[in-house]
Amino acid sequence: MNYEMTIGLEVHAELNTATKIYCGCKNSFGAQVNSNCCPICTGMPGTLPTLNEKVVEYAVKMGHALNCKINPVSKQDRKNYFYPDLPKAYQISQFDIPLCENGHLDVMIDEQGNTKRIGVTRIHIEEDAGKLLHDESFAGSLVDFNRCGVPLIEIVSEPDMHSSAEAKAYLETIKSILQYIDISDCKMQEGSIRCDINVSVALPGEPRGTRCEMKNVNTFSGAVRAIEYEAKRQIEVLEAGGEIHQETRRWDDAKGQNFLLRSKEDSHDYRYFPEPDLLTIVIDEEKIRRLKDELPELPNKKCKRYMDSYGLPYFDANLLTENPDKAAFFESCVARKNCKIKSVSNWLLGDVSRILNERNAVLADTSLTPEKLTDMIALIEAGTISVTAGKTVLDEMIFSDKTPKQVVEEKGLAQISDTGALEAIVQSVMDANPKSIADYKGGKTNVIGFLVGQCMRQSKGQGNPAVLKELIEKKIQND
Amino acid sequence: MELFELTAASLSEKLRKKECSAVEITRSVLGQIARKEEQIGSFVTVCEEQALKKAQQVDQKLAAGEALSPLAGIPIGVKDNICTKNVLTTCSSRMLHNFVPPYNATVAEKLEQADAVLIGKCNMDEFAMGSSCETSYFQKTKNPWNPDCVPGGSSGGSAACVSAGEAVLSLGSDTGGSIRLPAAYCGVVGLKPTYGSVSRYGLVAFASSLDQIGPLGRSVEDVASLYSVICGRDPMDATSAAREYGDFAKELNRSVKGMRIGIPKEYFGDGVEPKVKEAVMAAIDRLVKEGAQTVSISLPSTDYALSAYYIISSAEASSNLARFDGVKYGYRAEGYANLLEMYEKTRSEGFGDEVKRRIMLGTFVLSSGFYDAYYKRAKQMQQKIAQEYDEAFSRCDIIVTPTSPSPAFKIGERTNDPLKMYAADICTVTVNIAGLPAISVPCGAAQDKMPVGLQMIGPKFSEQTLFNTAGCFENLCGGFGVAPAMKG
């Protein structure tokens, strides 16, 4: 039977503030174990938290980006549970009055740029916990407190998604927005974005099914696998005449399976209550407004603009606007107005992306500038160099200080468009390929490509292919 | 009189006049500790070596002509729930029997800066939960007026050491009466400051929204001096109030002329022992003769205060004490098979009965399904009590009550009856619930000559008024001192 799945997501994103949420420790990843912590973030007796105001500002920005209502007065609460990576045995979070509520996010769901609106229930701030380490030289577990007190926002969606593709699009848009407003490093491999996924299935027209929550999903592709797996599992249970019980399951991406963590009966009673060590968070209206005004153009809007005013297809616009650095680079290129916009897009999404992927680098790691890229494209468009030569220029200049002109001169890549200089090459190629000429005359005009290719080879890539083609055609007709 | 019997103010003057040295003062106090500590048991830790070293430094500074604070060279006891860098801080619990903090509480840092001499860490009820100092894991502190009686709690060691001449001043903490009650039982002066006026950073939390560190001493001026040093905004404590504080000892005018003293009928009911009532009324009469006037007031919600207090304080305590899990510091049980068993054994063996009782109570009232019925209603009651105080203070300047319905009781008398034990706090808890300042001064004796405490409550940040009133009364009754049996 044709079940419909319903998905709700809780995304945890680590914020990239300079210091932690409740103490002055640096907020950085990768420090030596237990070197980046203090009596406060390790919950020593008598210590007290003080709120880092930046965390509030970052969360409010995200609230604006997701069209939320910003609560001018909100509070922090304690979520109580025992675990060795949680040194106070409670996490400071927000319970009944979060910073941001009732928002939504429009997610593009097809190549025409059509969107679907996903509700955002709330965004709240909270502190991260430490990490347990397991070392074979030691029988027990060890705790690294460096991550304790790293600021997090939790973004809770409404159960508005009905396919893994929609969930993935939502997650990618969230990540993209986090990058645009520059509040999270979004480094998946460092765990700076993690999500919990709620899935239920039901037959069309029937009330929503019982949901199960999956924890420990650390990649977007993992999210897709986890959703597909869980929906299938639930459908199998129902088809076999069984019943879905509300429970929490742990996703194991390596095994591609999830496992029961706890049933509803065993669920924690977190005994939330207002954090007495911290004051109510009060943000004045002026500041709320200012934070909204500071928001940059967000990816969805930008993507739409690229399609509408640059005439780019969705595929291009979507990829170009994926992260703010790429989009800014692209726009600087366009602003130079010395080459076609579509060419810039083709080069950025084609060869430039390929090189970056090979080197596992981003634009900022290279020496490529909008000037260098567009100058190079302009050389191609002016016929000064061939597309092939353009690739060589890019390879040469992307990690060096060289300009396209310098590379063209050094490597002698300028095209020969002078017919006199190309005449001899064309003649020798035609002499060597009488069968092709015959074929051409017999109507197989596409052999012209082969002949041009031969001429290019002889000219060591410098011949202007358009000029060569013209010369060949003229010669055959004159034969 | 021996040096250990003098007030900080007179010792400070002697130091300045070079009539004695700081080392002599510290030696005198250490001598009294050597003589009386076995009997009284005020301290968990006596810091003899460190204290003498600090006293020597003070003498060097004096010799070099440096300007010193009024507390320089004054031996001060600090309650054992206030973190002192490199000095054992146990909260009188097995759970922290070996805990040596790597940092100073803000108040400990301020004492250090003022060149006060840390003479020892004072015994207390375990994690400040108790009214008699009997729940300490280490020892039962005795009342210097009568060693068969409790010193009161939870800051029993802080009150006893001052009363016994084992310290000139001390710091306690007050969550529901824990400074004022032992001050009353031991016949010394104790101030519970306005919530937010003294930093809580480094005070091992019992109930964060009610806890406040405060001074105890043998004179109002001394207590005002110590309060002037420890109060003030601290960026490390978000709940500390941003405001300017004066020098309360300098501005002490001891005048009550024209002052309106509110007398709440609820605090003079049948539960209050006649002798206590008599002593308090006599004290009020003396203040009236000095120019004050009395106003009858009512604080009708007082009956519910104790319930609200035990719900709120236990709820916060259940969360605050969760960090004592054997993972990082303090006690860890031996012989466990897994994490859960480690937690259970550690907490079963590390905490005493009273602490466990409060953790269970607090856990229960915060549990889903019970939160609204208990915690939420207690918080509503808290607001109501605060409002009633606000209304009362529109009609009077301070409110006067007994500090406790009865004087110090016998050791062991109430240990098996928690409710009777909790009743000792009946006159003090509303002050914490409303975040107000209150001072307790000795005002006479009940049967068996045990001291009676007079409590004066003021609006927020009215400490100067409290000092002035208490100071006026101090003059009228000729001052206070060490307990008779403790004199040199």
Class by alpha and beta content of chain B = alpha/beta
Number of E-state strands of chain A: 16
Strand content of chain B: 5-15%
Task: Give the integer mean of the pLDDT values of chain A.
Answer: 93
Q: What is the 3D shape of chain A? A: elongated
Beginning-to-end CA distance, first to last residue of chain A: 71 Å
Low-confidence stretches of chain A: none
Secondary-structure-derived class of chain A: alpha+beta
Largest sheet of chain A: 9 strands, mixed
Oligomeric grouping of the chains: heterodimer
Tally the helices of chain A: what do you get?
15
Keywords:
heterodimer, A: 479 residues, alpha+beta, nine-stranded mixed sheet, B: 488 residues, alpha/beta, eleven-stranded mixed sheet
What features would you describe in this structure?
Chain A is α+β, with helices and mostly antiparallel strands. In chain A, the strands form four sheets. Chain A has a nine-stranded mixed beta sheet with strand order 2-6-7-10-1-11-12-13-14. In chain A, helix 14 packs across helix 15. Chain A is elongated. The N and C termini of chain A lie far apart (71 Å). Chain B has 488 residues and is of the alpha/beta class. Helices cover 38% and strands 12% of the residues of chain B. Chain B is built from 15 helices and eleven strands. In chain B, helix 5 packs parallel to helix 6, helix 9 packs across helix 11 and helix 9 crosses helix 12. Chain B is globular. In chain B, 61% of the residues are buried. Classes of the chains: A alpha+beta (479), B alpha/beta (488).
